[in-house]
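General statements about sequence and structure are easier to judge against a single worked case. No coordinates are needed to read the tokens, only the vocabulary itself. The sequence in question and its structure tokens are set out directly beneath this paragraph.
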Amino acid sequence: MKLVHKDIDKVGEGYVTLIPEDPEDMWHAYNLISEGDSVKSSTIRKVQNESSTGSSTSNRVRTMLRISVESIDFDTKGCMLRLKGRNIEENQYVKMGAYHTLDLELNRKFTLCKNEWDSVALDRIEMACDPAKSAEVAAVIMQEGLAYICLITSSMTIVRAKIDVTIPRKRKGFVQQHEKGLTKFYDNLMQAILRHIDFEVIKCVLVASPGFVRDQFFEYMFQMAIKTDNKILLENKSKFMLVHSSSGFKHSLKEVLQDPAVINKISDTKAAGEVKALQNFYTMLQCEASKAFYGKRHVEKANEAQAVETLLISDSLFRCQDVKLRKQYVNLVDSVRESGGDVKIFSSMHVSGEQLEQLSGVAAILRFPMPELEDSDEEDENS
């Protein structure tokens, strides 16, 4: 994300002008824009013109428009944000108060104005505009006949392709059919990897499967690369890492990212940090339950006692329409940081974020045990 201009006063009121440069920037924009904010960007509007003879013609004109945002729709496939709202600035083509939909796209400048920029929003701008991009990871989760190619950025997991090929069973007299089906599957997967993985950006490609499927595919792919002199694959062979997974379905990515060898390999990515923090939380929950809590009420009580060592919170909580509730979560983040705690904001579009959302979206690892929080649960149940 490119920061063109920033003007925010001491009270927190002001605006920023940004240019989204890659798909992940659109995700940051989605998290920055809230209902009630105003956004200014160029847009195309259909205009009706009536001539002196009474005939009317319509043509499309490009104009700058500022709207007060009423609804936000994020198109993950097209990497586009659709903002619907009323026009709040004089314009020769659009009446004041008229509804319009602004499409925010890659490399199109927009200005976002808020009455109050909180610490979470300001942190996101800093993170989005940081030129030191974190390492990118790709993953191929597979089993015989089924594979998913995923891109793991610092904020989300995107399924780029699904390869599904029916492979005949290996039966006596039909071995050739089985081999033929397997070759077709491997070939389709290899082509999809070349099509969807940009090896100039990707630092590591995880290939995971149950059994020896990954090894057989890896061997086939590089035999073919030598045969066809595929320089892209041959030059990037060291980026591939073979790991075990229980199945070839997308949910197996969670266990793959928890593998210590994988964590070491991708240790400089934000995604790995989130996975590790969640793993630590689950370990603490099993071994010392009075030092791990989830749910807004429990975490707030622990924070009041300055007991929160690590706060795990989903970014979806900052997109809630209830401004008062959003402020409570922002205050929680600020308070934990003030008392020296570590805050990890999870992306709801990442597998670790999906997992955290099943635990209400907020959890905490404590500095010291607070068994009284467990007791308050029992009291509530009794009452």
